[in-house]
């Protein structure tokens, strides 16, 4: 069955805050409206929103994002800066390490694929016979 993603989902979100060990600046409240998850739990989509703040990220997943509102800045560990705002679409690859700064309250749609440990090991050539 086809699942439409709703940019302004109804119903209460899952509300969370980041652990202190990840926070760089602020203590932003984050909200998540999960709208789809496959049976394996490796592929999922929905809407995410965060108040301003900065935190460390280390991606083990592949994530496609479309910014619906607000402004954020992603800074890679090598210093590369990517500013995103309404209408911007981008992919954060598995292995990205850096910071995510929400400058203005940001809302995005997301689609995430988290490879199973064995899938990732095969892809990275780390499987041994």
Task: Describe this structure as you would to a colleague.
Strand 3 and strand 4 form a beta hairpin. This protein has one helix spanning 117-123; strands at residues 14-17, 23-25, 29-37, 43-50, 53-58, 62-76, 81-84, 89-92, 97-113. The protein has one domain (15-123): Jelly Rolls, CATH 2.60.120.10. Strands 1, 2, 3, 4, 5, 6, 7, 8 and 9 form a nine-stranded antiparallel β-sheet that branches. The chain contains one helix and nine strands. It starts with 13 loop residues before the first strand and ends in a 6-residue tail after the last helix. It is globular, with a radius of gyration of 15 Å. It is mainly beta and 129 residues long. Mean pLDDT is 91; it is low at 125-129.
Keywords:
1 helix; mainly beta; disordered C terminus; 129 residues; nine-stranded antiparallel β-sheet; Jelly Rolls
CATH class: Mainly Beta
Number of domains: 1
In N-to-C order, the SSE pattern is EEEEEEEEEH
Query: What is the oligomeric state here?
Result: single chain
Measured between the Cα atoms of the first and last residue, the distance is 39 Å
Number of extended strands? 9
CATH superfamily: Jelly Rolls
Largest beta-sheet details: 9 strands, antiparallel
Residue fraction in strands: over 45%
For the record, the CATH architecture stands as: Sandwich
Could you name the ranges where pLDDT drops below 50 across 5 or more consecutive residues?
A: 125-129
Q: CATH fold name, please?
A: Jelly Rolls
Fraction in helix: under 10%
